[in-house]
Every structure is written in C-alpha cells, then in structure tokens.
Specification:
By secondary structure, the protein is α+β, with helices and mostly antiparallel strands. It has a single domain, classed as 3-Layer(aba) Sandwich (Beta-lactamase), CATH 3.40.710. A seven-stranded mixed beta sheet has the order 1-3-2-7-6-5-4, with helices on both faces. The longest helix has 16 residues. 41% of the residues are buried. The model has no long low-confidence stretch (mean pLDDT 96).
Length: 300
C-alpha cells in the first residue's frame, strides 16, 4: 500500500506525456527516467491524503545532490533527540547545503550525523568502526519501516571532484556503495516535511524555510546556481510558492519539488533522469513540469 492513492487517469496521462516527449527528440526517455507525481485536494493536506502515480518510482537511482534533502531531515531528527548540539555554524552549513547545494557544507553535516571524518585509508578495527558509524543515517531511515525507502543508501558525502582516502575506499569496487534513492521514497520524505509529520512541526518549518525558492526572474539572474532554471521550478506557473532540492552531475539531472500554485491545490513532483543526454537537457524538466501543471489544473 503506497502513501498515496493511485489515480488511473494520472497514470494514463503520464504515460502519454512520456511517449510524446520521446517522439519529439528524446528517444529512450521511458527507460532513463523515474517519476513520482502526486496531487492533493486540500490546500493544507494531511500525510497520505494525495492521489498520484509513478513511473519506475521504486527504481534505485544515484541521487546526486538530492541526498542532501535526507541529510537535512536527519540533522533535525538528531537535534530533536539531543544527539548533536545546535550552533550557528551548523545552521550555516545546513542552509548552504540546501540553498546553494554546497558539497563542503554537506561534508560537515555528514561528519556530524555519523561521528566520522574524512582522511587517509584506515585498516582493522578502526576501519570497521568507521564504516559502522557511517550507516547511522541508513539505520534511522530503516526505523521508519516505509516500503518506499527500500533501495535507499544514504551514507556518502557529495563531491565536486572525487573522494579520496577512506572516502574512496568506502565507495567499494565499482562504486557499489554509492548513494541511492528512489523517487517514491524521496516524495514521501518531502511530503512528510510539508505536512509537518516527520520531525516536530517547528523543525519542519525550519526545513521549509531553507527549501523555499523564489521564481523571481531578477533573483534567478543574479544566481546562476538557483536550482530553478533547467529544473522543475522553471516550469511552475508564475506566482507559485515552491520548495525544492535539485541534483545535477554528468550523468543525472534530478529535482524534487512541492508547488503551491495560485488559487490551486498543492502538487508534489519528483523526477530523476539518468544518462549524459538527460543530464545536458536543460529544457526537459521545465517542459515536463509545465505539462503536468496543466493536467493538474484540470483536476483542481
């Protein structure tokens, strides 16, 4: 049983739309994309109240910087349990990790969550202990017992260049231990933030604040790394309120977004695309979001 109610009409619409985009110059699109698309019938929905559909939504994918969304929620969970101490530097890192997608900030965040640090290769008991500590976020995710979180692996830092030393060792042969998310699980995490149901309401409000993004064109022009242009936010109607976390690298272009359109009901959309061709395509995610918003408006 999923966390939303399956809408057959949305399923049919999504399949038609993907076939349309595939015919229009994106061959093989259906095999290189995962989607979770959910609509809500209330302006202030309860968790699990949405109607939706998915496309390969339970397929594990390398998440790029979308994993930072998970680390941000984990920080609030750790603070709630007094496992770590809050500080201005922690809050600065948390903000920079989400709003600017800083990899340096993410390094500090994962160090705090796991009690580990980067450095030279380790051996013996020290290495075994380090690896065990790095599974703490995964153990926390497992404790939810959510079907959508199967296939998640959230234990690696994100890199502008490449991991070295013990970090490189931890990836394993063929990068077998790299991070992994599904759009279904990511969607449920984002929904839980927006409905104040995964950590305390106060903590969820703090998360919403750093996930909030502006569609103002002047602000976007002043920040080329705005996580709007080339992503789902660009395809949202003017005047919308959005909360999102994007991810982009040479083989992936992803986004997870919650959108409150003017005079309409909320829509949640998570899209992971894979492969170099998809990664370089700056027009697809905005176009997909635009089409799905049109379909959403017909039901709102």
């Amino acid at each position: 049983m999923g966390f939303y109610r399956l809408d057959p009409e949305m399923s049919a619409d999504l399949e038609k739309l993907l076939k349309k985009f595939s015919r229009e110059g994106r061959p093989g699109l259906e095999n290189s994309i995962s989607i979770s698309w959910i609509r809500y019938e209330s302006r202030n929905p309860q968790p699990g109240s949405g109607f939706g559909t998915g496309w390969l939504a339970h397929k594990p994918c390398y998440p790029a910087s979308v994993v930072k969304l998970i680390y941000a929620v984990a920080i609030e969970a750790w603070l709630q349990k007094d496992l770590i101490t809050n500080s201005p530097e922690l809050q600065r890192a948390l903000k920079d990790m989400i709003q600017d997608s800083s990899n340096d900030a993410t390094s500090l965040i994962l160090d705090l969550l796991s009690g580990t640090t980067s450095g030279p290769s380790l051996i013996g008991e020290r290495w075994e202990g380090w690896k065990k500590q790095r599974q703490l976020v995964n153990e926390w995710l497992t404790s939810f017992n959510w079907e959508e979180l199967k296939g998640f692996n959230c234990c690696q830092k994100t890199w502008s260049d490449s991991p070295y030393g013990r970090e490189r060792d931890f990836y394993g042969v063929g990068n077998i231990n790299r991070n992994s998310l599904t759009t279904a699980g990511t969607a449920r995490i984002l929904e839980s933030i927006m409905t104040n149901s995964i950590v305390s309401e106060q903590a969820c409000q703090r998360l919403k604040k750093i996930l909030s993004r502006s569609l103002d064109e002047i602000e976007r022009q002043s920040n080329p790394e705005n996580q709007i242009d080339g992503f789902l936010g660009e395809g949202c109607p003017k005047g919308s309120q959005i909360w999102s976390k994007a991810g982009w690298m040479s083989q992936a272009r992803h986004d997870a977004i919650w959108c409150n359109k003017p005079e309409s009901k909320p829509m949640l959309l998570v899209v992971f695309t894979q492969g170099q061709r998809r990664s370089k395509d700056k027009t697809f995610l905005p176009a997909l979001a635009n089409e799905l918003h049109k379909l959403h408006s017909q039901r709102s």
